Amino acid sequence: MTVKMDLTYNKLVDVEQRRQDNRKSQLYSRCAIALAGVAAVLLAAMAIHNLLSLRLSSPTPDKAFCRILPHAPSCYDPCKIVLVESMPEGLEFNSSTTHPSIFQAWLNLMNDAHSSLDIASFYWTLTNKDTHTYEPTASQGETILKKLAEVSGRLSVRIAVNAPQESQPQHDLRLLNDSGADIRTVNMKELTSGVLHTKFWIVDKKHIYIGSANMDWRSLTQVKELGAVIYNCSCLATDLGKIFEAYWLLAESTTIPSPWPSSFSTLYNKDTPMQLQLNNTPANVYLSSSPPSFCAAGRTPDLQSILSVIEDARSFIYIAVMNYLPTMEFSHPKRYWADIDTQLRKAAYERRIVVRLLISCWASTQPVMIPFLKSLASVYDPKSKLDIQVRLFVVPATPKQKEIPFARVNHNKYMVTDKIAYIGTSNWSGDYFVNTAGSALVVNQTSSKSEELTVQSQLQAVFERDWNSDYSTPLTQHSNLKHYC
Ligand SMILES: *[C@@H]1O[C@H](CO)[C@@H](O)[C@H](O)[C@H]1NC(C)=O
Ligand SMILES: *[C@@H]1O[C@H](CO)[C@@H](O)[C@H](O)[C@H]1NC(C)=O
Ligand SMILES: *[C@@H]1O[C@H](CO)[C@@H](O)[C@H](O)[C@H]1NC(C)=O
Ligand SMILES: *[C@@H]1O[C@H](CO)[C@@H](O)[C@H](O)[C@H]1NC(C)=O
Ligand SMILES: *[C@@H]1O[C@H](CO)[C@@H](O)[C@H](O)[C@H]1NC(C)=O
């Protein structure tokens, strides 16, 4: 079965290669025409430049067109993207914006799997053995674990996980190991003094899931999560596979290759994204990765992708993240880290972009986050067209739900602008971009040719639903953390 699948796969790759070669030559000729046009424009511009001493900031034609196009072949897979969410028990919105559950998406992916399943993960606790609470809402997690154990006996299941600490539960990993899964631990502490915080799945080198949910029963029923599944998309799955293979290699290693072997390189990044049809609509897509030391040639580091998405926005930037801190959260001595913060203020000031941040507030929120958020929210003055606003999202809990540790929180990690949907796995503070492993899906797709909404407008609707709900409270200069969380 596996052999047959592989042969079919290779054949597809062959056909794909020929199509890409055809397309390449088309691109080369288009490139030549584009270059001629650009050269003419440039000559005129240079004349003006010399006359008026204007500063030309546009990139050279070589960089803008021809160097990049032939190297970033298009993808002809019929890729289908679906946003997926976990809603904490009891949370209800006055909105028609709903998406399939992450639980259902994971089950479907396992049911569809014929040959392989690769999972990158932070930690595992899919049963509530960890809390001894016998929560009925742990049953979804238990179902996923059972199904995973079952497919581990049939398919190639590989799991890359952050090296667990002594105190962390090992039950799930032991069960999966005994069921036939191949498990490797990545000692991030030793490699970068960070953690492996990535959460994604690759199924049959064809379908992928990426998002905020951990392999934790709470992530299915007690924590608010957002992710995306992309079906029938070997091009993207192959590219995400390179990030997985990097973790797989590092698990056996105490040093980070530098440079990375060429098999880890990618052609797809913020400058030359993959061109593909997503839900029958053209889209430019790439995957970013952090920390920078894990990025082989061509890979856009996650921070660069966030900064470029902010810079590219023309009217609004909506951000929903659990934590937002312009600091290195875990460094000693303390370090200020304002790369993202500065970019947001710059967008609001220089280009009058509307900025909205929806940040989570719960029992474990660090108090220091609030003054920094107030500082951002103070960049608000309608007369000067400055418009940064911050709201705190609180997932309410009944007394019984309050007993569940590390639950009842909005754990989303995404950004949506007038042009881009960015779905990530990292908290937004310096550590996550400097020494912690994470990754993100960046979709550049604004106009839909089909009936269906673009993923950008679907994500915008999710943000607006949450922002306008009763679970969100505007952060003002007088807001007191204790009153909310
Ligand atoms: C998995 O099982 C093998 C024996 O089959 C054992 O040597 C290995 O340590 C186990 N790994 C984990 C992560 O439990
Ligand atoms: C993926 O492709 C298969 C085969 O063409 C098709 O049956 C299936 O419906 C597709 N899946 C999605 C989610 O579009
Ligand atoms: C999105 O695509 C457009 C053109 O297709 C490009 O000009 C823009 O830079 C892209 N934005 C990002 C953030 O990649
Ligand atoms: C995100 O930040 C919180 C608070 O610092 C931390 O507990 C958590 O491990 C981080 N990662 C996750 C699980 O999103
Ligand atoms: C939904 O609308 C009702 C009636 O206006 C309101 O009482 C309730 O709080 C709203 N819920 C949310 C989550 O916004």
From TrEMBL:
Domain PLD phosphodiesterase residues, every copy: 192-219, 406-432
Membrane topology: Single-pass type II membrane protein
GO cellular component terms given for this protein: early endosome membrane; late endosome membrane; lysosomal lumen
Compartmental location: Early endosome membrane; Late endosome membrane; Lysosome lumen
Source taxon at top rank: Eukaryota
Keyword S-adenosyl-L-methionine: no
Name by which UniProt lists this protein: 5'-3' exonuclease PLD3
Species, as recorded: Echeneis naucrates
